[in-house]
Amino acid sequence: MNEQLLAKAFVELADNLVADFDLIDFLRMLTDRCVGMLDVNAAGVLLADHHGELRVMAASDERVRLLELFQLQNDEGPCLECFHTGAPVTIPDLSTEAARWPRFAAQARHSGYSAVQALPMRLRDETVGALNLFRTLPGPFDPAATPIAQALADVATISLLQQRSSQQSTLLNEQLQSALNSRVLIEQAKGKLAERQGIGMEEAFTALRSYARAHNRRLSELAGAFIGGTEPLADLVT
């Protein structure tokens, strides 16, 4: 593992501990860094809303985002188990789990994934979500990489919960609820841009994210303006 990339990732996550950061972009960065540094092909983040219901908040690509949604809609899979138990779930070969998660295992393999590792996003005894890592080939996960992935998840969790007391009973603060609302706007903007430009959803997200960063804008704010028609993004390059 590239130690410089690892150090950079932790610095990026730590930089968000005190800054006014865009949570959706932050979580997408987490999934991107996992794919870039760990021996995985895709990553996703599920977080609980104020009702305790899991939501897909970030994914490294559209294929794994749809798989995460499938998992939630069918109420089965390693990521849900990880969240409910607060313990890591590692499956080196999903073909062995057909009886445990019949619908998820079949759909994951159909989507091209043969192994999954779900790591809890937790602070002390409170689990607020799960970081999910997917591989296209079956086989054991690198035991040296797992603590690093868990550390990334832990630092991200601290970032999420920095402004709330650990004694509070609610799972997430208002910042997360706002991010859940922003996620809807971003998905709508992705669809609108993809249709307008004749491109894929993942390419549309990358274009919106790059535009927001280039113009020092919050991704959710830009998405809302684009959906509302107040910002046509005429100079956006896909």
Q: How would you describe this structure to a colleague?
A:
- The structure is a single chain.
- The chain is an alpha+beta fold and 238 residues long.
- The protein contains 9 helices and 5 strands.
- A 5-stranded antiparallel sheet has the order 2-1-5-4-3, with helices on both faces.
- Helix 3 packs antiparallel against helix 5 (102-110) and helix 7 (174-197) crosses helix 9 (219-228).
State the gist of this model.
With 238 residues, this protein is an alpha+beta fold. It is 51% helix and 15% strand.
Strand-helix topology:
Elements lengths: L2 H13 L7 H15 L4 E7 L5 E6 L2 H13 L3 H8 L3 E3 L10 H9 L4 E9 L2 E10 L9 H16 L13 H24 L3 H14 L4 H10 L10
Antiparallel strand pairs: 1-2, 1-5, 3-4, 4-5
